[in-house]
Amino acid sequence: EVKHRNARMGSSEIRSFLGGRHKDDRGLYVSTGGFTKEALYEGERAHVHLTMWTLDELARTLMAHYPATDPETKRLVPLSYFYMPA
To answer: Does some domain include residue 50?
Structure first.
């Protein structure tokens, strides 16, 4: 699930997301505004494996794995490499 908000995501949204999941499920929750400490606690104690990413974590992961990304994702998120001398 992805939420685009300026404010941090709270614990009630995380509980709602986890509500219909089974113990063998895996979840990914992305919040552009980040998470409250209560939301992070809910994610840690969840009965399913839940990965919680901020916008920065999503961007770093996409850039790290971009060469192996499928063509459709590359079409939707066209990135170009450039090099800057140190």
So the answer is: yes
Which residue matches tokens 């499928």?
70
Give domain status of residue 39, yes or no: yes
Q: What is the pLDDT of residue 2?
A: 82
Q: Give the pLDDT score at 4.
A: 83
What's the confidence (pLDDT) of residue 80?
86
Number of separate domains in the chain: 1
Percentage of the chain lying above the pLDDT 70 cut: 100
Dist. CA 44–CA 55, nearest whole Å? 19
Whole domain around residue 48: which residue ranges? 2-66
How does residue 3 score in pLDDT terms, banded at 50, 70 and 90?
confident
Could you give the C-alpha distances from 24 to 21, 28, 46, 60, 78, in angstroms and in order? 8, 14, 12, 27, 34
Q: What three-state secondary structure class fits 54?
A: strand
Residue 32 lies in a domain: yes
